[in-house]
Recover the amino acids of this structure.
């Protein structure tokens, strides 16, 4: 399993970023995929999940601002992040769920190296 995240960067509050995660080494559309994030001093925090059938779910703090999507033909997961806030600052990782569907506990591995998102004026 290999997961490679990209798309992070420095953005002002209210700005937008689109993260990508390219997956390989497994049959991508057989699995739900998660986005999780980590800030210094905090553990990994679940952000969103999208089932193999394209049904997304989100943590409350990002609902209405973040959109998860996937392109199974490209083995790629996306996270569109709008109206970013300083509290969204973190390293973002994609992880593979153990099954086709989403649900707690949300998997934190396997995951890639992550991409840094910094929201600051």
């Amino acid at each position: 399993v290999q997961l490679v995240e990209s798309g992070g960067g420095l953005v002002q509050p209210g700005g937008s970023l689109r993260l990508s995660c390219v997956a390989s080494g497994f049959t991508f559309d057989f699995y739900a995929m998660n986005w999780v994030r980590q800030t210094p001093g905090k553990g990994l925090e679940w952000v969103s999940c999208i089932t193999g059938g394209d049904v997304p779910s989100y943590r409350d703090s990002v609902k209405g601002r973040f959109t998860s999507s996937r392109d199974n033909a490209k083995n790629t997961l996306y996270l569109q992040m709008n109206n970013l806030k300083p509290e969204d600052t973190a390293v973002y990782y994609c992880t593979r769920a153990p099954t086709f569907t989403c649900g707690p506990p949300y998997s934190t591995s396997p995951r890639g190296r992550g991409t840094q998102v910094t929201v600051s004026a």
Notes: The longest strand covers residues 17-24. The radius of gyration is 13 Å. Residues 54 and 79 are 13 Å apart (CA to CA). The chain has a mean pLDDT of 95.
